[in-house]
Amino acid sequence: xxxxxxxxxxxxxxxxxxxxxxxxxxxxxxxxxxxxxxxx
Length: 40
Ligand SMILES: [Zn+2]
Hints:
alpha+beta, 3-stranded mixed beta sheet, 1 helix, elongated, binds zinc ion
């Protein structure tokens, strides 16, 4: 099983089919992450 994780807030965003356990880091659209994005 693969797991998508937000690299900013570490929230589990989604799961996807995978032969082995895989963690992928991406950015979710939660309020916390959106606020950090605006500061850049
Ligand atoms: Zn997030």
